[in-house]
Amino acid sequence: MLPWNKMFPFPKDYMKQDIFKQTDVENWMSKAMQGKLPPNPQTFGSTDFFAQSFDLLRSAQAKRNKKKKPAFEAKVFETHEEVYVRFPVASEEQLSQIKTSHNTTTLFIDNIPTPGSKQSIPLPCMVKGNSSKAKYQDGVVEIRIQKETSIPLTKVPIEIIKPKPKK
Which residues are registered as beta bridge partners of 75? Predict the structure, then answer.
């Protein structure tokens, strides 16, 4: 007797039985896949799996692009002492309508890219409240905000609760 036969987890009689019949497996798979695939492979205009996949991907991307609002991109980066936020502005007339504000974690910009729209830009770290400066040059607004260097700590006391003795 070869040693690997002893290590095989199933008895020989078990392997001789025909446990999985092909019709059972086909029925099980058809029940599992029911409603997951289109009933007719010609639905997407091709029987090729990859062509169908690309058709689905293109249609999903087209739907997503239709829902997108006007593009606004702000570049955020930080140095050791400051956080910089830069974003393009179409004209100096639009610049007069823009309103900016920030809290310790987020920068808010109103009326860009269109009047009435609002942007929130998460900042990479905590910043100081009254330390921001903004400038406009060559169609780009640059906002500089100083980082918060002293983060306040609050001590949290732990209350010890002892169980009551049983009577």
Answer: 86
